[in-house]
Design a protein that fits this description.
The complex is a heterodimer of chains A (about 300) and B (about 300).
Chain A (H helix, E strand, L loop, with lengths): L8 H5 L2 H5 L17 E10 L2 E11 L4 E5 L6 H9 L7 H4 L1 E4 L6 E4 L13 H6 L3 H4 L7 H13 L15 H15 L3 E5 L7 H16 L3 E5 L3 H7 L2 E6 L1 E7 H4 L2 H8 L14 H8 L15
Chain B lengths: L1 H11 L1 H5 L1 H26 L5 H8 L1 H11 L3 H25 L4 H23 L2 H8 L8 H30 L1 H7 L4 H26 L1 H18 L3 H26 L3 H19 L4 H5 L8
Helix pairs in contact in B: 3-9, 3-11, 3-12, 3-13, 4-7, 4-12, 5-6, 5-7, 6-7, 6-11, 9-10, 9-11, 10-11, 11-12, 12-13, 12-14, 13-14
The chains are: A alpha/beta (about 300), B mainly alpha (about 300).
């Protein structure tokens, strides 16, 4: 694990989170001897000095299936982006550290729909074939077995017969199925999904959720940003509840309590331009594992 | 019958058979069509259609410095132009990466500065005539060295485009996916984009030096824009763009010969005519949209 911080170890190992968000259930599921796949260590990511993620610590165990929930602007997408490396994670005393043990080519990341050019003249098959990028790169040949994988993936998401359709002619739900097919082809160990079921009908959602379950059974690590509490309770054993700060992280039943959800909802969405500079790190260093609540408390909605 | 055939020969082949400058203009135009038009398709797909125009101005200070150092030497001016273009592209890329500005905004700012610098340099060290020559070169004035330059650039860039094709498509279509799965992170996407823009610069300089700005940008963009109206797939659009550029080149040269009009504008006029024709008749144009075929049951 990378250590950017100066404060003593006990804070991190035993009670790092209690000092950030008091009274949390234990770490995300950790299968005994296995080291965590992703370790967040006092992670802070800011846009224009305003934190989108504020002192998040914890870890994702290999093979865990975690839902990330929280109100709009609570840093859910930022969390995924920082794991993929799309937003810079500041090191140094205020940035904390993020360690991802999965090599890049074994990470599949599904951003929100808006980040892809759907007007591009490309057909469904080629789009799914892009999942091979990590293996074939820019110049190698695409083998027949990879093409067979593409066919199988399209079959799995129910898009057989769509191979030659331009992506621009698909509905939002169909595009999402294409994206899932691409992830299937990627064969990744770590799968990050950002609001994968937006604009997707119930039947398709069920189908895609079944894929997520299958990945979980195959011991892949899945982290999904979601909004539907019922869905999370039913399908996701682990939950990470965010409101810029960590509100809860652990078994879903223990995290999704009314009290915690209320606290997450109380997060103020607007930036506070008069907020003082955060001195949590300095304070953590001073108190070295002492009192909970050393962190600036969540601002309640006025 | 035979006289008709002879008349057609005279009209269509005669000018090229008779005059070497017409043959050179033809070859230069065809070579440029082969390499520049597909680049134009990628530019339009990446919503950078106006980039070609901006870049063609950005190379000016380099051309001017080349001229100041070595006089009216094609290779010196071309080298200067390529270096200036690459500098502007590289700087714009850095600015968009490390500041809040997007690529197009930073390029717009930088090319204007470069253009101002170029015009200042030329007017201090050359005559107005030189400036005109540099800005509006003539297809009919292509000499042997110019032909070699265009042909060489066309060869290199068609090969480079073939090599870069997969990465470039991926980077244009889904840049987030590429940066997320590339070993280099965001730099993974950046490398493709920069390499692509370098190709655009090299093509613009080659076209610019031999045929003039209007021809360089026009042959790159006009056929590319029309081609997008005809096909749903990228390979077809690329081929179509090259074919339209070539057709415009041949027709334009013949027209300019017979009607005694300037060659560059005539060629671009032909490409423009193809564009308006495509607007009306192509599957993505307006007439097929009005008179749509009856729909199927499923």
């Amino acid at each position: 694990m990378k250590m950017h911080l100066t404060h003593p170890k006990p804070v991190i190992a035993s009670a790092a989170r209690p000092s950030i968000a008091p009274g949390l259930p234990g770490c995300a599921r950790n299968d005994g001897d296995e080291t965590p796949l992703i370790t967040l260590h006092n992670l802070t990511v800011s846009y224009r000095q305003h934190p989108a993620l504020h002192h998040i610590s914890g870890q994702f165990a290999p093979g865990s299936l975690t839902a990330v929930i929280g109100p709009n602007g609570s840093g859910k997408s930022t969390l995924l982006k920082s794991i993929v490396g799309l937003v810079p994670v500041a090191g140094g005393p205020s940035g904390g550290a993020l360690t991802v043990r999965t090599p890049r080519q074994h990470i599949a990341y599904l951003p929100q729909l808006s980040e892809m050019d759907r007007g591009f003249p490309i057909d469904v098959q080629d789009c799914v074939l892009m999942g091979c990028w990590g293996r074939v790169g820019a110049f190698s040949r695409v083998s027949p077995s990879l093409l067979a994988r593409v066919d199988a993936a399209l079959q799995a998401v129910g898009l057989q017969g769509f191979e030659r359709r331009p992506v621009g002619t698909l509905s939002a739900g169909q595009v999402q199925r294409v994206m899932f097919a691409r992830i299937l082809v990627q064969d990744a160990q770590l799968i990050l999904l950002d609001e994968p079921f937006n604009a997707v009908d119930a039947k398709t959602t069920a189908r895609l959720l079944a894929l997520v379950q299958q990945w979980h059974q195959e011991r892949r690590t899945v982290v999904a940003v979601l909004h539907d509490d019922a869905q999370v309770r039913q399908y996701f054993p682990q939950t990470l509840l965010l409101a810029r700060e960590l509100v809860g992280w652990g078994p879903t039943a223990e995290v999704l309590t009314d009290a915690r959800l209320q606290r997450a909802r109380a997060m103020a969405e607007a930036w506070d331009e008069t907020a003082e500079v955060c001195d949590t790190d300095a304070m953590l260093a001073r108190r070295a594992g002492a009192t909970p609540g050393a962190v600036r408390p969540l601002r309640s909605a006025a | 019958m035979e006289t008709l055939l002879f008349a057609a020969w005279d009209l269509l082949v005669g000018p090229f058979a008779e005059f070497a400058f017409m043959r050179r203009a033809l070859v230069a135009t065809l070579a440029l069509s082969l390499s520049a038009a597909p680049l134009g398709v990628f530019l339009t797909l990446r919503r950078m259609s106006l980039m070609g125009d901006a870049l063609s101005h950005a190379v000016l200070p380099g051309v001017a410095v080349g001229y100041m150092v070595a006089g009216l030497s094609l290779s010196a001016m071309a080298l200067g132009g390529v270096l200036a273009g690459m500098l502007v592209v590289g700087l714009a890329g850095m600015v968009s990466k490390f500041t809040a500005l997007k690529e197009d905004a930073s390029l717009a700012a930088l090319y204007l500065v470069a253009l101002a610098l170029g015009v200042t340099l030329i007017s201090r060290h050359g005559t107005q005539l030189d400036l005109l020559h540099i800005l509006f070169g003539s297809a009919l004035g292509v000499d042997h060295a110019g032909l070699l330059l265009v042909a060489g650039v066309a060869t290199v860039s068609v090969l480079a485009l073939a090599l870069m094709y997969r990465g470039l498509v991926l980077e244009s279509f889904d840049p987030t996916f590429l940066s997320a799965s590339s070993l280099l992170g965001w730099r993974g996407g950046w490398v493709w984009q920069q390499a692509f823009l370098m190709l655009v610069v090299v093509n613009l300089v080659a076209g610019f030096q031999t045929l003039g700005t209007l021809m360089a940008v026009g042959l790159m963009m006009l056929p590319a824009v029309s081609a997008r109206l005809w096909h749903d797939t990228l390979p077809a659009q690329l081929l179509n763009a090259s074919a339209q550029a070539m057709l415009a080149g041949v027709t334009g040269l013949l027209l300019s010969y017979h009607l005694d009009t300037p060659s560059g504008p005539t060629i671009i006029g032909c490409a423009g005519a193809l564009y308006f024709g495509s607007l009306l008749l192509a599957p993505g144009g307006c007439l097929p949209r009005w008179w749509s075929a009856p729909h199927r049951v499923a």
